[in-house]
Amino acid sequence: MHVLDIAQNSISAGASCVDITIEEIPDRHSLYVIISDNGKGMDSSEAERSLDPFYTTRATRRVGLGLPLFKAQAEASGGRLKIDTVLGSGTTVMACFDTSSIDCLPLGRMEDTMVTLILCNPEVDFKYTHIYCDKCFEFSTQDIKGKLGCLPITDLSVIGWIRIYISENIDKLYGGVASEVDSGTGGNKTKDFASC
């Protein structure tokens, strides 16, 4: 739910591309959730206020709970949250969770999260990267749209295939399927974010 909420914040900020990265490092009991966008970004004052639940730029409600709750959940597990943003140049939200903590909630079903985002925002390009140890899976709606021709990405047959494709490749990362995982560009995307 946090990923959905933060990604929707990105879209509300005018993002046409949203990158979602999950990186799991089991031997360090670390889970990183990174959401980057090419939206309008924030100045330093607005970035600081974005962590206040009683501040929001939305006119439809007086509270903005997405980032404050995400931060609280990370900190409850012994982790932290960091925002990198430049006005006019997009925003990156990175949260680190200590998976050995009893207060660290399970990741959830990322295939359902991605399908929901695609169905609700077919005009936005999403890139999803999932790293587990030294294995990496990448999915891009831009690549899929390029191969669909006139068939919309929201077509139910396409959405069904996307859900299965993401689910099967996440299973491969965890060793649940015998075939090889696409190691692709992989690598540690969290090297600049201090350990929890």
**Shape, per Cα inertia axes:** globular
Write the CATH fold name. Answer: Heat Shock Protein 90
Let me know the CATH homologous superfamily. Histidine kinase-like ATPase, C-terminal domain
Average pLDDT over all residues: 86
- Can you count the beta strands? 6
Radius of gyration, in angstroms, nearest whole number:
17 Å
Number of H/I helices? 6
Q: What order do the helices and strands follow?
A: HEEHHEEHEEHH
Low-pLDDT sequence parts: 58-64, 178-185
Largest sheet: 6 strands, mixed
Oligomer: single chain
In the CATH hierarchy, what is the architecture at level 2? 2-Layer Sandwich
Furnish the topology, listing elements before pairings.
Elements: H1 2-12, E1 17-25, E2 30-37, H2 44-49, H3 66-76, E3 80-85, E4 91-98, H4 110-120, E5 125-132, E6 135-140, H5 141-148, H6 156-173
Parallel strand pairs: 1-5
Antiparallel strand pairs: 1-2, 2-4, 3-4, 5-6
Helix pairs in contact: 1-3, 1-4, 4-6
Brief write-up:
With 196 residues, the protein is α+β, with helices and mostly antiparallel strands.
Structure description:
By secondary structure, this protein is an alpha+beta fold. The protein has one domain: Histidine kinase-like ATPase, C-terminal domain (Heat Shock Protein 90). Helices cover 33% and strands 23% of the residues. It has helices spanning 2-12, 44-49, 66-76, 110-120, 141-148, 156-173, and strands spanning 17-25, 30-37, 80-85, 91-98, 125-132, 135-140. The chain has a six-stranded mixed beta sheet with strand order 3-4-2-1-5-6. It starts with a helix and ends in a 23-residue tail after the last helix.
